[in-house]
Design a protein that fits this description.
With 96 residues, this protein is mainly alpha-helical. The protein has two domains: 33 residues, no CATH class; 57 residues, no CATH class. The protein contains four helices and two strands. It has a two-stranded parallel sheet with strand order 1-2. The longest helix has 20 residues. The chain starts with a strand and ends in a 7-residue tail after the last helix. It comes from Deinococcus marmoris. InterPro entries: Transposase_11. This is Mobile element protein.
């Protein structure tokens, strides 16, 4: 299974849309707020990213950028996700 469609914030509008289509073959859909909206507004698909980041930052190690290398940070993200999935499989297990 390959990535084909990506959702992005309005800040990524511009040349990135054509670049992702030409270079990677992905369609990039920009999710923008209405110009008339005031205050907080739930945007489609954006909550998925916000929720996932909230799950990751529950791990103390990922709440700040402690790591000096990118692959170390990626490893900690994998470990946090593994812990999350294991807790979902057996909720009775206490966290480490």
């Amino acid at each position: 299974m390959r990535l084909r469609h990506v959702w992005a914030d309005g800040g990524y509008l511009g040349k990135l849309v054509t670049w992702t289509l030409e270079t990677l073959g992905w369609t990039l859909e920009i999710i923008k707020r209405s110009d008339r909206a005031k205050g907080f507004q739930v945007l489609p698909r954006r909550w998925v990213v916000e929720r996932s980041l909230a799950w990751l930052t529950r791990s103390r190690r990922l709440s700040r950028d402690y790591e000096g290398r990118c692959h170390t940070s990626a490893s900690w993200c994998y470990l946090a996700n593994i812990r999350l999935m294991l807790r979902r499989l057996d909720p009775s297990v206490e966290p480490l």
